[in-house]
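Troubleshooting log. The previous run stalled partway through. Resubmitting the same four chains, unchanged.
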Amino acid sequence: MSSEHTARLLIHCQDQAGIVQAVSGFLFHSGANITSLDQYTTEAVGGDYFMRVEFVLPQLPQQLDSLTDNFTRNVAERYQMNWRLSLVQERKKIALLVSKHDHALMELLWRHARGQLPCDIACVISNHEDLRHAVEHFDIPFHVVKVQADTKAAAEAQINEWVADCDVLVLARYMQILSAEFTEQWAMKIINIHHSFLPAFVGADPYRQAYEKGVKLIGATAHYVTADLDQGPIIEQDVKRVDHRYTVTELRQLGAEVERQVLARAVLWHVEDRIIVFGNKTVVFE
Amino acid sequence: MSSEHTARLLIHCQDQAGIVQAVSGFLFHSGANITSLDQYTTEAVGGDYFMRVEFVLPQLPQQLDSLTDNFTRNVAERYQMNWRLSLVQERKKIALLVSKHDHALMELLWRHARGQLPCDIACVISNHEDLRHAVEHFDIPFHVVKVQADTKAAAEAQINEWVADCDVLVLARYMQILSAEFTEQWAMKIINIHHSFLPAFVGADPYRQAYEKGVKLIGATAHYVTADLDQGPIIEQDVKRVDHRYTVTELRQLGAEVERQVLARAVLWHVEDRIIVFGNKTVVFE
Amino acid sequence: MSSEHTARLLIHCQDQAGIVQAVSGFLFHSGANITSLDQYTTEAVGGDYFMRVEFVLPQLPQQLDSLTDNFTRNVAERYQMNWRLSLVQERKKIALLVSKHDHALMELLWRHARGQLPCDIACVISNHEDLRHAVEHFDIPFHVVKVQADTKAAAEAQINEWVADCDVLVLARYMQILSAEFTEQWAMKIINIHHSFLPAFVGADPYRQAYEKGVKLIGATAHYVTADLDQGPIIEQDVKRVDHRYTVTELRQLGAEVERQVLARAVLWHVEDRIIVFGNKTVVFE
Amino acid sequence: MSSEHTARLLIHCQDQAGIVQAVSGFLFHSGANITSLDQYTTEAVGGDYFMRVEFVLPQLPQQLDSLTDNFTRNVAERYQMNWRLSLVQERKKIALLVSKHDHALMELLWRHARGQLPCDIACVISNHEDLRHAVEHFDIPFHVVKVQADTKAAAEAQINEWVADCDVLVLARYMQILSAEFTEQWAMKIINIHHSFLPAFVGADPYRQAYEKGVKLIGATAHYVTADLDQGPIIEQDVKRVDHRYTVTELRQLGAEVERQVLARAVLWHVEDRIIVFGNKTVVFE
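Second attempt completed without errors. Output:
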């Protein structure tokens, strides 16, 4: 069954008896076949309820509107659900922002080129020219916008123009702090890779901080960006073992491997509709 | 909601449209609240279907029989399901078999004593006296049966007597090969810990084999026991990094840590009804 | 060659040309055979130099004093070394402090009983009676001293009496804060296990902090205790992967596994003279 | 101190008293400063001895010949050493062989471009045209030679011509079996990445074998190539956790990540002279 008939439903509501039955019953009577179903409740009774369903419906994409209408009336309103329905074939559009470090960017471009990142990459935006050649090799537009204290507003306006039709922005080691206005406008739609195991080592130069603290593991954290620097909901983290022999430079090199993997997983989960944000935390249906 | 009202349903059948709806609808109309649901299909269409549901039903355990009857008639027969329904409060009874190495055994006794292994340990059986003191400290009966080529049948008969009311046997480094009759009688009810990353290093002294091969990781494998030595369905595996400096003795020591963890996870998953065997493989709903 | 003839030399000095030659030449001319040698320099030129040598000398332990004298005069003074020489057969004496959680304590007692922790355990000290039975099963003295705000000084005096001939104290989840006087008296001789990946989540109830932050890995840190709570030199760290499904209780359970392993490794390295503290960091020659 | 004055010495001989002293004394009296020293002995007494020393000598590279002569006469002959001395600035020349899968190749080209793989890549050789564009983007020559049963000898002759001045060949998923003549000619100078945790799953399509066996971890192995397929000395291995949900395709994708990392580490260690082959095993001084 090709992906054109496949859709995903993400749901968040108060936990009540009968939700699984209501959703699966609705889909069954609509002619859909559930191919994947995950759910999670924060408490045994009366907590928050989260669900992700993937299903195949031969009448998709034509009957998307009627399916949506029916689901709204017959299920979502009854349970007061926050929900969204996505067609797998409607690939998300993403833009990548980067400064000079290429490792996280290259990992994404590379996986995308190999068909392992099911989304469309609209463009790469940087505040430096350095990576133009590397990006254009993948036939992806590369835009440069310089950012300085007094030009940040204009730069962000320019970025907003370039990414106007994008669904998500990925900061693949973009070393500029985005304004609160910008991050609010793109709330839970900007993914950043921070080069430490948050909440350890927020702020600048975390590998130097890690070196000075003498930690025995270094890590990376992919998270949604909020106005609070390095404090947004964590999507994914990983670490590697180090010892006293590692210089700051070597920590950075090893850390770059972790950053690549962690960011790539986070972006994949986002474009596959596997993440629901809940307060300052994420539910990830891997 | 206390565990006395909680039950688990494990299902295996041919994949068809409507199974989730049928099961969740049945539970909803029976007054149950689904607290956990996992499913897996081997193929997008027409494969094997597996499901694990945990639910709370205030009328349990009293209405277990009627629930079972109704499920059989209204759901299971229609979809030709292999299934089983377990009450969480009916803890499984397990027996542990061991020879002289105590690490895997101690890990299980210890977790059990701490309330982390929800089952009843009926007894520990060994072909040596060595571990009597360690076991009896936990107030668990310790039986010894010597095994020699010509006494194996009698020994297994004796074991069968001791474990007559047990649900599962755990070989926590039991160094005797069980007869084909015995393993068939207890099919998919004996869990063994093999001290290598199977299928590498089947047979005797896998740490020596690993040493001689010069592998850079050593591992352990928990699996169900079949008549084919070291070939039964794998439940869990893990590894640790080693290098050329490790002697065979050190590989054994480090490996013992992996064995303890891997076996403990496998036994936990079994007693929590998280495993469905399918051909020579396992579906584990963690 | 039995361990009675084996010794370990730990050295820290300014890096200069010829140190390896001086030490290895001295040992060779003293009749010793080097069985293990590790070194580390903080900078390519002119940094701090660290060395660990294990050697066998048939005249040990009898000639320990003359060896020490000669090394002092002929090598150590010339290079202004901080150093210590230990006989492997002179096992370190350790005391374990614990409150109510038994997992870290049991791991140490268990490894010790199995011959995997080459030291003598003088006693276990607790501020609660709870673990007496578990400890005395290992034939190790168990002392209880209640600690309250106004009795802390007296309690520490009592502890000091019990551990007077000990080389190192291990806090295996001891939930009392030691006074600055006490930690200074035992500087770099108290090992604590903190139940988080430091420097994340210092202070109380780190698993709850981790839960509220929504991290995707939880960890544990073994460190030397200083007057600055949770800030002493880190010896070892490790983590385990978690997801949104883990309750605080489950984080604690999984975390307990990490704590056990991390503390056991740290104590082993300490008693095998593998750790040199350097500022607020450790050099660990694994 | 720049790398032009830095050299590495690898030694293998019978263990005897005084080797460290002899080597470090020789280097000291030659005016060298040891910056790194690792050693390993297979037995406490009388085994095989291995050593890796990195040192800085201001008179290098000019005095390389006299240093070599002196070392031979004064140290190596006395201890009957197998040894080699390499200047760090004389970067090794490597050639990469690949078929159609690009992931392992790209990882190497990418690290090389970023300065993380200190060697010269002479060329990439393939039996397919597919990866020409990707390789030439890095300004590295790309050669294609078709291989069929009856043309294998000619193809290998052609390859030999292209790689005549290379020090090591890396099979980055090259799907042709090299002849015994070829592998003997390049003994311990061909590194292959096998897509399983050897010795499990030798031979073709290991991910399918892993799928059918139902293993819970998949891995990759970098090893030197010998005439015995998939049996040469193991350099490095790693694994990733999987479960029953992974299709063969997904195992391949996840496995590709492990392959990339494992091969990159093995090649790095080889070009940094960190590996000594000993029988069918490797000593790796990380």
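Takeaways: Chain C has a mean pLDDT of 95. The longest helix of chain C spans residues 248-271.
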